[in-house]
Write a structure and sequence with these properties.
Length: 118
Amino acid sequence: MIEVKIYVDSEDNIIRYTISGHAGYDVKGQDIVCSAVSVLAQNTLNSLVEVCGISEERIDYSINEKKGFLDVIIPSELDKDTKIKVETVLKTLELGIKSIVENYPKYVTLKYGRCREC
């Protein structure tokens, strides 16, 4: 099962997301659930750089493809316009994950948390 966790700050802005595990919907290379979550997760990270204009070096992230793990922490010091773009990108990720959870609840979970260490 894939577990997606979205962390918010005191103002309910998304400031971190983690994705871990494998769906187990089908065999590796044919698992459409894993593929869907992977595309959303990677596209979100790419969008933070390309659309929001945050340099890759400023984003604290780690990826372990073999274990199916991605952890992305948004930099805390962003100007107002960038924060708006970031929140739009991250809300889009959340919407996509919710859609996958609705259609494949046995394979993906979505949890929320407050970020204390970010």
